[in-house]
Fold:
Amino acid sequence: MKRVRSDDPDKADQYVQHKRIKLQEKFEIFRQVCMEFHFMNKFMGQEEPDTLLFVKRDRIFSLNFETEKISTIMKFKDDLILQPEYFCMTTD
Structure:
């Protein structure tokens, strides 16, 4: 969903479907992934973030939902014992 800001301050912003990707059908990496995700910070000159961060037992990875490119951000030295239920990040 993508937010479309209302010109009228008395009306709520609208949300429209931007793009739909069936992740588990398209990408094997999305098997047993924590479904809590975070948007990556905006890059210079980019108005809207286009990349999501996910975590699973062996890595933290990103998905650019515009290009559908997946990148590994960090691979854990030792896999976690269980699939993560929560994905909490610090401001660092």
Observations:
- The mean pLDDT is 82.
- The CA atoms of residues 28 and 60 lie 15 Å apart.
- The first helix runs from residue 23 to 26.
- DSSP finds one helix and six strands in the chain.
